[in-house]
Specification:
- Helices cover about 75% and strands about 5% of the residues.
- By secondary structure, the protein is mainly alpha-helical.
- It folds into 3 domains: about 45 residues; about 70 residues, Receptor-associated Protein, CATH 1.20.81; about 250 residues, no CATH class.
- It has a 3-stranded antiparallel beta sheet with strand order 2-1-3, with helices on one face.
- A hairpin with a 5-residue loop joins strand 1 and strand 2.
Length: about 400
């Protein structure tokens, strides 16, 4: 139980204030309404910062799949003719995520207090992004909210599926790299120093590669703290550099110029941009407002900056294709298709056709890269292990039996 302070108006319109023990803000509002009071303000005692910090902690635990379930269930209930507030209350009791359940309860309380569904969702930006809020607002004003919720669920599921494909494709190579690195460190730090002691008793001139391996092993075994410290300092410096605006932009531009990987990143950005932009235009969101929201969908700063320049150009009579054409970044085929869509008035449909095309291209490229990475990792492991084995066996093969 928590203590909530409230302000409400009675039947005569007079403002009253008080405090109430309850499990949630929604319960306080329900009790006040049952007492024929109209809630004006309900706040948990302890200050806004503490409540905000708790809310942020809860929101950070909400998964994409839980949000998809929320969209689906809300669409089904509203389509069945159940009122919005009642639907929110039903869904909040059915959700398996405690964090999302509390967020939805707060949304229901805000809607019950007079907010629109979009305004209530906007209070939780960590859970419901700008795209969802804008689409819900258009759905409420246009009377097709269930369709919007179904589209949001499908969109969220597709994004989660794409992330899952990339994680699955990179999991095996990363495991191989980790295991190989651990094995090499173990050999260099513990096994080779024992073999070096045997060679020292033989009083033989060692080959160059054996001497090189011994020096590397000695560095890793005796001065490992310098290596670890240097790696830690380098990681912190890189992290600080990437947190700066200039550093982040440099890394993002460099990522787009990488062979193969740069094209994968760009195609995923294009797919996300086209799908989000097309979906918003198709549901009646004004083009300038849609572009202001779509720019936040881009994860690469260079791509985001290119999209940010579109609204001023459009306001001056230009088009999306003209803005994108100014940047030596987007494929010519994509720009030409957008130009055709603008000329024919079918821009939303063209964008929704572009999205799956570039998504499929990115998916094929990821599969190709991962299929090449695995043999490359095996080859590198073989070279490293082969170097260690040859460096250790060569002194035995070249031993001089006449040496004293």
């Amino acid at each position: 139980m928590s203590l909530f302070k409230y302000e409400a108006k009675d039947a005569k319109g007079q403002l009253i204030a008080g405090a109430m023990d309850a499990e949630s803000r929604a319960m306080v509002i329900t009790r006040l309404q049952a007492m024929n009071y109209f809630p004006v303000k309900v706040q948990q005692e302890g200050g806004e910062s503490r409540v905000s910090g708790l809310a942020n902690l809860l929101r950070s635990r909400v998964g994409s799949s839980d949000v998809c379930d929320f969209y689906r269930q809300m669409a089904d209930l509203i389509t069945a003719g159940i009122a919005l507030i009642k639907s929110l209350q039903i869904v909040s009791n059915q959700l398996t995520s405690p964090a999302l359940r509390k967020v939805v309860s707060a949304v229901a309380a805000d809607v019950q207090g007079g907010d629109t569904f979009g305004q209530a969702l906007e209070r939780h930006p960590k859970v419901f992004p700008k795209l969802a809020v804008a689409l819900v607002n258009s759905g409420e004003s246009g009377g097709f909210l269930p369709d919007i919720l179904q589209q949001l669920a499908a969109f969220s599921e597709l994004e989660e599926e794409l992330k899952g494909k990339i994680r699955a494709a990179l999991a095996y190579p990363l495991i191989m790299v980790f295991v190989a690195t651990a094995v090499v460190i173990f050999l260099m730090s513990f096994v080779i120093p024992k073999i070096v002691g045997i060679y020292a008793e033989m009083n033989q001139d060692l080959p160059f590669i054996t001497i090189l391996l011994i020096k590397i092993s000695s560095l890793m075994g005796r001065q490992w703290y310098f290596l670890v410290g240097g790696a830690a300092i380098g990681a912190v410096a890189l992290w600080r550099f990437m947190r700066s605006k200039e550093g982040r932009r440099f890394v993002h531009r460099l990522a787009l110029r990488l062979p193969v990987f740069g094209q994968i990143i760009l195609k995923r950005e294009i797919s996300r941009f086209a799908r989000t932009f097309g979906q918003m235009l198709k549901n009646g969101v004004p083009i300038l407002q849609a572009l202001e929201i779509v720019k936040d969908v881009a994860t690469n700063d260079v791509v985001r900056e290119a999209i940010e320049q579109a609204p001023p150009d459009i306001a001056q009579g230009g088009g999306v294709s003209g803005t994108l054409r100014k940047h030596d970044l987007f494929p010519l085929g994509m720009i030409n298709m957008i130009a055709i869509g603008e000329e024919t008035g079918r821009l939303p449909d063209v964008l929704l056709q572009i999205a799956p095309s570039y998504e499929a291209q990115a998916d094929r490229a990821v599969k190709t890269v991962t299929s090449l990475i695995e043999p490359l990792i095996i080859l590198c492991m073989g070279l490293v292990v082969g170097f260690i084995v040859i460096a250790m066996l060569l002194p035995i093969l070249t031993i001089n039996p006449t040496a004293q």
